[in-house]
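WARN retry 2 of 3 for item q-0093 after timeout on previous attempt; input resubmitted unchanged.
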Amino acid sequence: AVVSTQSTGRRGKYSSGEEASRALTSMFTDGTLIYRGYVDDAKNTDNAWLETISLNFHDEHSKTYGSFQLGEDYTWVEAHYTLNLFCQHKDWLKDVVELHRAHW
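OK item q-0093 returned
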């Protein structure tokens, strides 16, 4: 799933910050590297450029990620080739979709 600028209105299932912290720590323990390196960006110059690391943290049955309220400005949306994404984000998202043998 991808994050977009819409509200979910959902509440998280965690009753305390400590419980949520343990869930987040567990969730972000093992990620799959999707991309590491240079990012083609208009702000790049001969002396300064952007580099990034893209990781995939997968929650097959929505036991962890689906439990968090994302906040007022974000929601989960379907990963789809028509999404208007910045820079190489669409390429990385397609790599994740292919990794999980999902439909693009």
